[in-house]
Every structure is written in C-alpha cells, then in structure tokens.
Amino acid sequence: MKRVYLDHNATTPMRPQVRAHFEEALEEANGNPSSVHASGRAARARLDSARERVAAALGVDEDEILFTSGGTESDNLAVLGTLRGAPGAGMVTSAIEHSAVLEAGVAAEREGHPLTRVRVDSQGRVDPEELLAAVRERAPALVSLMAANNEVGSLGPLAELGLGLRALGKLRPVFHTDAVQALGRAPLELRAWGLDLASFSAHKLGGPLGVGVLYKRKGLKLLALQYGGGQELGLRPGTENVAALSAAALAIELAQREHAQHIPRMRALCSSFWEQVQRVLPQAAVNGPDPSAQDRLCNTLNLSLPGIDGRVLVARLDLEGLEVSAGSACASGSLEASHVLLAMGRANEDARAGVRISFGWNSTSEDVHGAVDILRRTFSSSR
Question: What is residue 189's three-state secondary structure?
C-alpha cells in the first residue's frame, strides 16, 4: 500500500540536504561547545555559524537568537519569562492559541497574572481593534498572538496589532508571536511588525525534531525558567545539540529562501484538494478561512464531515493509508473537542468532527488524488 502523508503541521520529513548536513555535523562537531580544547572550539564555531545563519534568515541580529528544544519551550519561555518579571501584570491573547501559550498563561494566572482571551470570529480571525481595546483596558505586560493557527490556518493580524501597540508608547506591552506554523508558509516581518519575541520550530520546516528558536529583541529582559549553566545567555542552560542546531539552521535558510515558490505551490495543492473533495463529498465543510482566501495559511485545510467523529475518521483513514490529524497533533489523543473550533462557535459535536489536512515540501499532486480517493472510500464505508 502506498501511504499518503498529509500531516505536515504535526511534523514534516527531514529534507535530504538537511539530513546530509546533520550527518556531516555529527561527524565533525562532536565536542562540547563550552570546552576550550580543539573539539570544543570546532563545535563552538559550528554553533556560532548556526546562530548567524538563523539570524540572517530572519532578518535580525545573531545575539537576538536563542536556541531551545522546540516551539513549546520557546513559547513557555516567552510567556512565563515575561510575566514572572512583571508582578501582578497579565497577558492578553486569543482564544485559539496553541496550548503551549494558553497553558503557560493559565500557569501564570495561578501565580497572580490575569489572563484575557480575546474571541475570534467564525473563521478563526481575531479583530485587532478588539484585541487592542483589551490591551488598553487591562494594561497587560504581554500580548501574545499566533502568526498562523495550526488547526484552521487563519493568520493573525500582526502588522495591524504591532502598529496599534506602538501607539501606546511607554505603556506598550511586550509583543510575542507563536510563528511555528508561519515560517516559510506566510509573510513574517519581525522588525517591521514591532515584535519583541517570536517562537519557531525546526521540524515544521524539514529540519530535525527537538530544535526550537526564540527571537528575543535586543535589550528585552526575560527571567530564566531553568538553571544550571550560562548557555543561551543563561536563559536556556544545558549543552547545546550542535549537529541538530546546525541542521536546523539550514532548514530555516531553505524555508526562507524558497518561500516565494513554496507558498503558491502549497496554495495550488490545497485548492486542488478542496475542489476534488467538493465533487466526491459535497457534504464536507471547511473550518476556517475560505480556501480561496489569500490571508490564510497556504498549506492547511480543516474539514468537517458530518456524522462522524474526527478522531474515528483519522483512525480509519490511517488504516487505508492516509495520514492526517484531528486538530493539533499535541492534543490528538485528547477526548476533548478542539478548543479552536469551539472558540469559532462550532457546536461540541461539530468541533469533534474536524480533520486537519496539511501539505509540505514533498507533497505532490499525486498525493492530492490519492488522499481524495481514500477519503471518499473511507467516508462512504463509514456511513
């Protein structure tokens, strides 16, 4: 059976050139970058190069790049590292953020930092004026808004929000975005949008698992969440995984270099998939922005097929050779309905029916045809 993998928002396979780079780095940089002998210096040189390359790809300075274990740690450090340095001050965010942001916010709320979740509309979009109104009313220490939603593909109005936050002057809170799904798939301007913090993850881009990046604007103060060493400006102690970080830097470079070609190709695959699904399963409905909209994540579709739970359908599709997910991969084992779809106004039953299809760097038109055929056969047999 030829399997079709359309779960790239969960993770995407490592790109061949990144894998080759990773293997080379494992051979050449096996010292501890904190050691002063030759092996340590070689590892340090490769680590410094990785930081420089990531910074250049993101258009920032190298001393503004911190390496972490993934997007979750980057989000946690951004949220808790900011709030714990601002006693009594809270956070304003949206109701559809990734759990790495929302659960960190809940943890901070238990420590005395108020948490405000701004609603979204039926397509998962945030009104920047409503969010700014909450900021003016609550005077938070932190605003966190994701660049692109991992379940339904709606884009956050970061440019508009950044402009509104600048107008607050000295009262402006720290501005963070979870950009894990956006890098290489949607516009992203860290400087122009006035971001202070931004979280990324290499394995969404064809890089290795277990590598994250946190952009931290120069001069911004964060409190460390871990202790023990001075690595990563003392904010993320522990010996760095140099080979993985070097490979991650290459994946980020490639994603940024190729996004002008990658975005329209992903958009075309998504459009083709939706057109074919409509023909064979006219009862299917899209959760999130219309597939024809330009202000949406280019590679992501979230569909509901009435009458069947999304997790049941995902299991049946897997048996037939199609790998997709029901909502976020981080919560796919949960029995709860998607908090994103619930926040968009879906009934509990409908929020359980959502299935996420996400394309990646190695997806093809053959994958589209194969996926639609499996979906048609599987859904028909489940009736």
Answer: coil
